[in-house]
Specification:
This protein is α/β, with parallel strands linked by helices and 527 residues long. It has 21 helices and 9 strands. Helix content is 50%, strand content 8%. A hairpin with a 4-residue loop joins β4 and β5. It starts with 10 loop residues before the first helix and ends with a helix.
């Protein structure tokens, strides 16, 4: 096609030319797409699915009722709200005869990092009866280090994920005369108050939450592989590192620091659901003792009843112990009506349980396909699951009886399909067997459809493990879990972690920060 002389064309001829060229470009685009798909097919590559979220873990944010808005940038009126700590007058060089017209303000934020050594001259008095009285040190002074230094060390290590070695180098470069042992002591010595508050945060969350999400990741302690479990929701986060990944371990964590065992109605019901034999259940239920202070007392009780550990699938001691732990959880007012949302890991299947839809769909997404038929079946199934997921999001905002019935029927239609791809069909049967847990949201629309919050929370533990390895002492392990959990909880409650530490370390002139457990309880009750 010869190129026309555009300068000589009329307006109508130009419009016709543009329309013709636009059509040619569209045809070429379709040809390119078809050729790409043909090349991928010939190479045996997976084609693009019909529906593919940009981030599988972020599908819950795809609710069309909440359009995305770009973040606000720039200072704007925030400058007027900042507290001015110092004013400096900058003089200008002007010619003679100039008139002074006032000042033009320009606000600059800066940071002062320097060593600040204080000598406390404590008065000493000798009383008439011969005793010596020395004035006490101010609150917040621990050893030879003040509250501001301790706060900086904690924020850098726990929130900033700075290793002890790098933190030591920072402090020495600033001018602080400190050793590595002293830095470690600032991080883990005399921190029981923070550990207790983290435990109370868990108790408040378990007592008042309508739902919690859970997850776990690997953790090393004393050179041995263990597991760190996360428990939380939109208002709190708690971490606990233990040596095993089991349902027994999870139930122990759900007791939130209590060490007792209780045989009550909930415990008996748990044992029955876990297929403990009826004669053993009757023996436990008929005994006058229902409450046991600790593990040795509980084991002694089981031995007295003749319940011994056996190498069988349904170990009676294990099931009875799990039941007594669950009874303790309920006796302390934990969980209540709360739904536990998990990624289908077996240890989390206790109480009212729901499953994460993102993890369920991921099983379909990760299936290996080696034929065109299998690939098409996989894509077709994903194209059914994601619209169903989005309709569940819509239902959460406007639950109704008709919507509930329709969604249950659609679930049956989707997951009872047979595609001819054996692995996919087997997986669909498995997902259909989890219908109750996957559709819990129809009866409890307030719960989330995923465990994205838990996966997001537990990343800080993964980062800590990668850059710092494991812990060596129980105090170090407990402090790591407590401070990371408190930092996450502060962020969810809108509390400054810097101000929180300042208040708890009794640093002068710091804003008061309420008890985090009280804030969690208030938020969960009003959510």
């Amino acid at each position: 096609m010869p190129s026309p002389d555009i300068d000589r064309l009329t307006a109508s001829e130009l419009k016709a030319l543009v329309a013709e060229l636009y059509g040619r470009v569209s045809d070429l685009s379709r040809t390119v797409i078809e050729q790409r798909e043909e090349i991928a097919r010939l190479k045996g590559l997976k084609g693009r699915p019909d529906i593919k979220p940009s981030k599988p873990s972020g599908m819950a944010k795809a609710n069309p009722s909440k359009p995305w808005t770009p973040p606000r940038r720039g200072g704007g009126p925030k400058t007027a709200k900042r507290v001015i700590h110092e004013e400096r007058v900058v003089k200008a060089s002007v010619p003679p005869g100039s008139r002074f017209k006032g000042y033009e303000d320009f606000v600059v934020q800066d940071l002062v990092l320097r060593a600040h050594v204080v000598r406390y001259r404590r008065e000493r008095w000798l009383t008439p009866d011969g005793h010596t009285v020395t004035a006490p040190l101010p609150c917040g002074v621990a050893g030879h280090f003040g509250g501001e230094l301790r706060r900086f060390v904690m924020v850098q290590h726990h929130q900033g994920q700075v290793t002890v070695a790098r933190l030591l180098a920072q402090l020495r470069s600033i001018g602080i005369d400190v050793s590595k042992r002293q830095v470690v002591r600032m991080l883990i010595d005399n921190q029981q108050g923070f550990i207790d508050e983290a435990r109370d945060v868990l108790r408040a969350g378990l007592q008042t939450s309508a739902w919690i999400t859970v997850d776990d990741t690997g953790a090393r302690h004393k050179g041995v592989n263990g597991v760190c479990t996360q428990i939380g929701n939109d208002h709190f986060t708690w971490f606990g590192t233990t040596g095993s990944k089991s349902r027994l371990n999870f139930l122990e964590l759900l007791r939130a620091g209590h060490g007792d065992y209780v045989v009550n109605v909930q415990a008996i019901d748990y044992m029955r659901k876990r297929a403990l034999s009826e004669p053993l259940i009757a023996r436990l239920g008929a005994h006058k003792d229902k409450h046991f202070a600790d593990a040795p007392a509980w084991r002694k009780h089981l031995q007295g009843l003749g319940i011994l550990q056996r190498s069988v699938k349904h170990d009676p001691v294990l099931i009875a112990t799990e039941g007594a732990l669950f009874g303790s959880v309920m006796a302390h007012g934990f969980l209540g009506r709360a739904v536990i949302v998990s990624d289908d890991a077996g240890q989390f299947n206790v109480g009212r349980h729901a499953l994460c839809w993102v993890h369920a769909e991921r099983l379909v997404h990760k299936l290996e396909t080696f034929t065109d038929q299998a690939r098409l079946a996989q894509q077709a199934m994903r194209a059914l699951i994601w619209p169903f997921y989005r309709d569940l999001i819509v239902y959460k905002g406007q639950p109704s009886a008709d919507g509930r019935i329709a969604l249950r029927a659609r679930f049956e239609t989707i997951f009872k399909r047979r595609t001819g791809f054996s692995k996919l069909d087997h997986l669909l049967k498995r997902l259909h067997a989890n219908k109750k847990e996957l559709l819990t949201v129809l009866d409890r629309p307030e719960i989330p459809l995923h465990t994205n919050g838990s996966e997001n929370d537990i990343r800080c533990q993964v980062t800590k493990r990668k850059i710092s390895g494991g812990t060596r002492s129980q105090a170090g392990r407990d402090c790591r879990d407590a401070f990371l959990g408190l930092a996450k909880t502060c962020a969810k409650l809108g509390v400054s972690y810097w101000e929180y530490l300042g208040d708890r370390l009794f640093i002068p002139n710091q804003p008061a920060v309420p008890s985090l457990p009280d804030l969690v309880r208030l938020r969960c009750q009003t959510a």
